[in-house]
Amino acid sequence: MATSLLRSEFLSFTLHPPNSNLRPPNSAPRHLYSRSQTVPQIRCAKRTGKQRYPSEKKKLKLKHKQALGDVENKFEGLWRLSKLGVSVHSDPGKDFLGVSDGLLQEIAKALEFPVASMLPPEAFSVVRKSFDARKVLKEPKFVYTVDVDVSKLLSLEPRTWDFISRLEPKVGLVEHMPHVRASGDLISIIHDSKKISNGALSTKNISPGSKGSYKYPTSRKPKVAVVGSGPSGLFASLALAELGADVTLIERGQAVEQRGRDIGALVVRCILELESNFCFGEGGAGTWSDGKLVTRIGRNSDSVLAVMNTLVHFGAPRNILVNGKPHLGTDKLIPLLRNFRLHLQRLGVTIKFGTRVDDLLVEDARVVGVKVSDSKDKSQQDFQKLEYDAVILAVGHSARDIYQMLLSHNMNLVPKDFAVGLRIEHPQELINSIQYSGLASEVHNGRGKVPVADYKVVKYVSEDGDALVNLGARSRSCYSFCMCPGGQVVLTSTNPSELCINGMSFSRRSSRWANAALVVNVSTKDFDALNFHGPLAGVEFQREFERRAATMGGGNFVVPVQTVTDFLENKLSAASVPPSSYRLGVKVANLHELFPAHITDALKHSISMFDKELPGFISEAALLHGVETRTSSPVQIPRDNDTYESTSLKGLYPVGEGAGYAGGIVSAAVDGMYSGFAVAKNLDLFPHDIESVLGKAQGGGLVKY
Fold first, then answer.
1. Residue 37 has what pLDDT?
2. What predicted TM-score, i.e. pTM, was given to this entire model?
3. CA-CA distance, 618 to 430, in Å (whole number)?
4. Does the structure show a pLDDT above 60 at 46?
5. Do 493 and 546 meet the contact criterion of CB atoms below 8 Å apart?
6. Under DSSP, is residue 213 helix (H, G, I), strand (E, B) or coil?
7. Which residue in 126, 317, 417, 484 has the most C-beta neighbors within 10 A?
8. What DSSP designation does 16 have?
9. Three-state DSSP class for 57?
10. Is 247 exposed, middle or buried (0-12, 13-18, 19+ CB in 10 A)?
11. Distance between CA atoms of 308 and 694, rounded to whole angstroms?
């Protein structure tokens, strides 16, 4: 993919910069150094913007010109206009995704067209809309990216011809797109790929009445088991089923309808179903979360667009394709997942809910099936052995028993860095006021003109927990994670003796609270310090603090809490603390007793630094909850970069969050989709290279989310 190529080129340039011919004044000429000596490197601070030297600006301008190239025909395809800012007062609001009069004014400025009212709105389509309320701006504004359909514009308003003829590409602002790129959902993409293959390959490989699907080169369809019905498992199942495999989707938890009832029993009556809860069940852990669809793997990449369009196909609102920070919310995810399930069943996918995978069936270092039992049967005595041609392991990172089972087969598991910390909760009105100032009154509990305010902060502190002064020193990052505006704190424990939490929100984000995890990254060095070693050291590290939190809360999933001000002063909060959205009860505790001192100090310093960025963040109304440990997988299961197959066992394909290759709904779905393609290719299900339609996958590397 182009995004991946640009990223790799940038990293290559950053890590291995070309030699410079410039020498600082009074420096020794090159010939004074012998070949055995190393020429000293002079590192300077990066100069950006107006600080650049004129020569640097000239080079940058030339580089941009070369990158843009000449436009052969300005009247073909589309022109994309970016960073069009419309003030809040001139915009209908966050829920309006059409072309308003205020946006037409900005389009007219970009085209240098004199009369905005003469421009036909039908010729323009909104690609992206986001809200920018940064304090550096004169006023908050909605920021748009708009596509201009040139042929439609000229047919509706011929007087724009001269203005289009004078239009020139500008980096980050104006881009010419000669070929209109049609982005469809995964289903239509696979169907289109079949048509391409039908035209390119001999029909002798096509079975009669198959409508273009290919025969598996044996007397039967290949049988594939997909373990886990989170985003990775669902999209892997969809890809394989559409390509003609006989797919069985195995999920230890329940379908969303029953899962909702089980979660209700947990919240109301404190009854934890070990296999059907906030972590386990149809849709994975993301179902009862915020439903965020933000990703760092490229919003405009073909693979991400395919996932987003597929979600829309199954019932997600179309605004997720346009919103700068798209999210669904639990109430939107539940009917979407039901539609997804029904489509899979129509394709012939067998779905086994309440079925736990207890072991792999292995012959000659190859997985040939799975051993399963009823999730409620703890004895595992009433089991079945099911044979498959391939097994896709798409479990979440809370399925710790799966990691243990993999180790019993001498599989290679690699400890991975992740982050731990606390979840902070503020009144949403306070966050609105901090972020929007006078505009806070426009939020109206998610029903106003501007979106419910959120935040994202990141700082670096030294490994000892002190504020970082020297950027070259060894450091650890402290950042906000899974910020849920208008949300609530929920329990994500899968064991009664352990306590961990997360945040969730519904689509409207109308709760009176805002919460986010404040976490510190940890590594094997931290695991070793607590005498946790081996492949599952990170898992034991998580469990240690989950058990401590459970003890501090006093049991029954009561969460230990402390006000932010008292946490910074290391004193026990008064018996009366600000109200919490967590519904199973809270108990005042000193959260300094939870983590090692260096993690606690890192959290303290980062909170102080966050307050400088968000004045008012440190507030007596802010409440810290313990503990947040499951930010990402603590292990990675090595796999082949191209085939997605495990490097330890043939026939096993580890994918998604639990395998350490994704984080979040979108990146997990993308990983599952490409794994489905890889398995189909390995099983000769589909000879056409479908990846050419979506671009090359990220492969076995860690997907950025």
1. 40
2. 0.87
3. 11
4. no
5. yes
6. coil
7. 484
8. S
9. helix
10. buried
11. 13
